[in-house]
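Per your request, structure below.
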């Protein structure tokens, strides 16, 4: 998700690539000389806000009215261009070699806790900060050169463009350090940035922020038009996005350049000119041709006056010439066309989403022999189906899931109610309303965040000596690892505390409490006799049912031979998750002993039909375990650091 201003904290502006104007567009060129911006990702502009090109949180800007603006206000450094895996400990090891570090904070997303790619390092004195800036700037951290500058928290200073220089047509080999070395001869550089894409490849333009206007003017005078790595570069004063947008809107309202398409490929330049001459004076005209000197069916006409261009568009657009309907409109730059196409795509996407909202079903756990026709037949009893599709791989083999789309939400809801967990070809179906991947990921991240927060509250409560007990109809308590503990109730209507009035309540992250060697028995299952006991035996049980630590880690309860959907149906609904957890735990324990409880709790958020599938298919269970491990490791690495 582009991240919000709150998360990025006014990080470096994703400025736009500037393209030189053609002879046809000459009259529309901006006075600033920076040209128009060609935006590849409009979301970057929205996220970064209207800040100076090189104006990151570490950027300070000078002003003639405020000569001290470039002076750092504290011994705080901004460190950017960081790999997402960089932690506070790594930065401490690097910066502490310069001098005592007061605190370090890697900025992270408020929800996902993922690194935003920048951090703040606070020293005790300005001398150490200045030394770190001089010696560590562009040092490789996890294979990436970091970018260091003084932190400037005042947004008004960050947004001032005084002394900010824009450079375009850069060779891809020029990085931040090379750009810094090139321009450092003209004065003190506060910030230096080469714009890159998602793959860290140069976009061909960058920004250098000097501490004075004189330094910026000297750089423009000496470098503009020079060859850098055999490429002629353009250097000019940075024009803020607001100014560019204002000029751009003014240019759109007074356009003179007209684009014409769907022309007859046999048309001549004279015929093309004669078509537009009646509307007014033409300053330039271009009929685009191919390598064989044949017209490609489109061209440009630039009028001397806006009124003439507007009249030509109004009268010639949609007119038929030589059997072809012409398109005549204002000539657009590439970024405008891309933005318009992107808006249309998003609009169509949203319309499609709204159209299928609540009527499109996701069906999982399909047998390989189930095809589109059978899927449609199985669901046709609940309403009119507009489409039914089983997803397949490159070889045409079923992936085990598909989609069914109805005409009304009522039909879809009825199908979910009737078909979810119904047996089809020997396997219980999972049927639910289809969700987009981004929605599912957001929900998962929210669940993990909520669990982590609740676990933290439990740890704080435990440290304060508050027993983790809920009374009445409150929410379920969570066991070690953050997984629900069913509230056991004694004869007086109060929950039982481990070690008081009865055995410890079970939860699906802990081995079930059964006599040594005896497996649990569920409705519909034949009881099994005592199983062989390992040399170490089962965990010795203390009063209250709590296993001794020495034996608890090696305890793996016996598994029933088979647990079917019919067996689960015989279990009261409120106990099904506990039963499934007790069945899953031993399987997970054999794979991941230390994290078995956490993984079991995570998997229990799935539908019962999916859990039954995991009990039967070891490959599917192994895949889910891997997914859970990835999530656990990711969030363990990104645990938020407190203020130092």
């Amino acid at each position: 998700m582009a991240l919000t201003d709150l998360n990025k904290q006014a990080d470096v502006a994703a400025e736009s690539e500037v393209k030189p104007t053609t002879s046809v567009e000459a009259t529309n060129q901006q006075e600033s000389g920076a040209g128009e911006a060609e935006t590849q990702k409009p979301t970057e502009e929205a996220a970064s806000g209207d800040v100076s090109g090189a104006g990151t949180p570490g950027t300070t800007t000078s002003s003639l009215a405020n000569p001290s603006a470039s002076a750092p206000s504290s011994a705080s450094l901004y460190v950017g261009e960081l790999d997402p895996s960089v932690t506070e400990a790594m930065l401490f090891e690097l910066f502490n070699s310069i001098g005592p570090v007061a605190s370090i904070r890697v900025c992270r997303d408020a929800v996902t806790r993922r690194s935003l790619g920048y951090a703040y390092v606070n020293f005790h004195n300005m001398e150490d900060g200045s030394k770190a800036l001089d010696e560590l700037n562009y040092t490789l951290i996890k294979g990436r050169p970091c970018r260091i500058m003084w932190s400037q928290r005042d947004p008004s200073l960050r947004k001032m463009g005084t002394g900010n220089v824009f450079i375009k047509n850069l060779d891809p080999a020029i990085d931040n350090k090379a750009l810094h070395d090139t321009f450092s001869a003209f004065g003190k550089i506060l910030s230096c940035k080469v714009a890159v894409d998602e793959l860290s490849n140069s976009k061909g333009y960058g920004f250098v922020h000097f501490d004075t206007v004189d330094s910026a003017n000297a750089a423009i005078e000496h470098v503009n038009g020079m060859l850098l790595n055999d490429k002629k570069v353009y250097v000019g004063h940075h024009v803020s996005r607001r100014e560019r947008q204002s000029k751009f809107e003014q240019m759109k309202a007074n356009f003179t350049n007209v684009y014409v398409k769907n022309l007859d490929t046999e048309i001549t330049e004279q015929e093309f000119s004669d078509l537009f001459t009646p509307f007014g004076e033409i300053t330039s005209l271009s009929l685009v041709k191919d390598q064989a000197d044949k017209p490609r069916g489109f061209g440009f006409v630039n009028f001397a006056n806006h009124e003439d261009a507007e009249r030509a568009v109004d009268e010639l657009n949609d007119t038929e010439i030589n059997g072809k309907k012409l398109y005549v409109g204002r000539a657009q730059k590439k970024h405008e066309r891309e933005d318009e196409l992107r808006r249309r795509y998003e609009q169509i996407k949203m319309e499609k989403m709204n159209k299928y909202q609540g009527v499109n079903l996701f069906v999982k756990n399909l047998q390989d022999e189930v095809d589109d026709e059978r899927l449609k037949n199985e669901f046709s009893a609940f309403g009119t189906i507009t489409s039914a599709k089983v997803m397949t791989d490159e070889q045409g083999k079923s992936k085990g899931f598909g989609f069914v789309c109805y005409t009304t939400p009522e039909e879809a809801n009825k199908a979910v109610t009737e078909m979810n967990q119904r047996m089809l070809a020997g396997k219980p179906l999972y049927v639910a309303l289809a969700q987009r991947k981004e929605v599912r990921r957001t929900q998962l991240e929210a669940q993990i965040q909520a669990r982590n927060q609740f676990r933290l509250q439990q740890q704080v409560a435990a440290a304060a000596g508050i027993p983790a007990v809920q009374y009445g109809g409150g929410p379920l308590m969570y066991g070690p690892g953050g997984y629900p503990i069913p509230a056991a109730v004694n004869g007086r209507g109060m929950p039982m505390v481990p070690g008081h009035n009865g055995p410890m309540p079970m939860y699906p992250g802990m081995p079930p409490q059964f006599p040594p060697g005896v497996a649990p028995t569920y409705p519909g299952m034949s009881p099994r006799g005592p199983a062989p006991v390992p040399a170490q035996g089962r965990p010795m049980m203390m009063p209250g049912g709590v296993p001794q630590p020495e034996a608890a880690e090696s305890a793996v309860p016996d598994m029933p031979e088979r647990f079917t959907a019919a067996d689960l149906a015989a279990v009261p609904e409120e106990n099904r998750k506990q039963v499934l957890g007790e069945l899953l735990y031993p399987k997970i324990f054999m794979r991941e002993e230390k994290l078995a409880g956490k993984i079991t709790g995570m998997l229990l958020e799935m539908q019962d039909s999916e859990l039954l599938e995991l009990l039967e298919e070891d490959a599917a269970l192994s895949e889910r375990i891997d997914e859970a491990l990835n999530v656990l490791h990711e969030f363990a690495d990104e645990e938020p650091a407190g203020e130092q």
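Residues 1-70, 468-560, 639-644 have pLDDT under 50 and may be disordered.

Regards,
D.
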